[in-house]
Amino acid sequence: MMNKYLILALGIIACNTPAKEKLHTIDYVTVGKMMDTIRPPYVIDLTNKNKRLVFIGCDHNRDSTHPQFKAIEKYFNDLRPEITFNEGGQMPDSTHFSSLNQAASTRGEPGCLKYLSDKAGIRMMNGDTEDSLEFSITLKKYPQDQLLLYYLMERLVIPYLYGAYGSEPFEKVYNKAIENWFIKEGFPVSASQKTFDGFKQLYQHYTGVPFEAKLTPEIEKFDYINGGDCRFCAIGRTSKMVRDSILLDKIDQAFNKYDRVMVTFGHGHAVALKPALKQIMDRK
Q1: What number is the average pLDDT over the span 100-125?
Q2: Burial 51-67 (b: 16+ CB within 10 A, else e)
Q3: Could you report the per-residue pLDDT of 116-157, keeping only the tens digit for each?
Q4: Are residues 78 and 72 in contact, defined by beta-carbon separation less than 8 angstroms?
Q5: N or C of the chain: less Cβ packing under 10 Å?
C-alpha cells in the first residue's frame, strides 16, 4: 500500500495535479484568502444515489464549547457513517473517551470522531499521510535542510508559540520532537541538527535573523498561503498537496465498499478539496 501511495504522490509533484486523475482543487494561495471569510465548521455534504459523504472542515482546537464539536455529533448521528477518517495519524484502538466533552478537550476533532465512532461500533481510520511516507516523497523534491526547517516551523515552532505544547521550555520540546517526529520516522537528521543550537543556526542561515521563541514577522516566510518566491511557503503547499492526494484516494476507495463516509480535517483542506470531492461523488 505504501508503494501505491508513493507512486501516486510522486505523480502529483511531477504533474502539479492533486490526484491520480485530473481532479480539480483550489490552490492554497487562493484558499488562504478565502479562509479569512470562512468560519469552521465548514461542512461539505454530498450525495449521489445511495452514496453520501460528509466532510467537516475544522479548526484544530480543544475548546469543547466550539460549535464544530456539536456539528460533528449532529452530522454523525444523521449520516450514521460506516467508516470515518481523521487527520493526524491512526489513533490506537485502545484509546477511548468517556464523553464527547472529554474527547474534544483532550484530542480535539480526532478525539470527537473517535468517541462517536467507538460508540457506533465502527472503525476510525487515518486519512492522513504517514510521516515516513511524506518525508520519502518530499525529500525527492527539496533539499533536506530546507525541508527540516519548514517541518520544524510548521509542526513545532508555530504551534508552540500559540500554546499547543503548554509551558514546557522550547528547547526541551525541541529535543523530544527531533527524535520522535523526525529521526524515528526516517528523516535524515545530521548530528548538528539534532541539537537546539544546530536548529538556531539553520534558522538564521535561511531567515537572516537569530531565532526567537516568539511570534515575529519571519513566521510569514513559512505560511503556505503566501505566493511569490517564498520558498518555504511553496514547500508547505507541496506538503498539503501530497496529503490531499492520499486523502482523496482513501475516500474514493472507501466508496467501493461503503455507502456512507465521514471525514474531519482542517478547514483549509476542506476548502481546497471541495471541487475534487464533488467529482468523486458524481461518478459514484
Answers
A1: 96
A2: ebbbbbbbbbbbebebe
A3: 999 999 999 999 999 999 999 999 999 999 999 999 999 999
A4: no
A5: N
Query: Contact 93/112 with Cβ under 8 angstroms?
Result: no
Residues in the chain: 284
Beta partners for residue 105, in sequence order: none
Q: From residue 221, how far is each of 111, 206, 226, 230, 235 by CA, in Å? A: 31, 10, 8, 6, 11
Give pLDDT, residue 6.
Answer: 52
- Measured from the Cβ of residue 2, the count of other Cβ atoms closer than 10 Å reads 10
pLDDT of residue 165: 82
Give the DSSP per-residue string, 121-147: T--EEE-S--HHHHHHHHTTTS-HHHH
- 259, three cell numbers: 455507502
- Is pLDDT at 21 greater than 70 in this prediction? no
C-alpha grid cell for residue 185? 520516522
Instruction: Report in angstroms the alpha-carbon separations of 188 from 120, 128, 135, 183, 256.
Output: 41, 21, 9, 7, 37
Q: What is the pLDDT of residues 210-234, one digit of tens each?
A: 999 999 999 999 998 888 889 999 9
Backbone angles phi and psi of 41, in degrees to 5: -80, 140
> What pLDDT is stored for residue 19 in this prediction?
46
Pairing of strands 51-58, 260-266: parallel
Q: Which residues of 227-240 are buried (b: 16+ CB within 10 A; e: fewer)?
A: eeebebbbbbbbbb
User: Which phi and psi angles does 24 have, rounded to 5°?
Assistant: -95, 130
DSSP state of 50: T
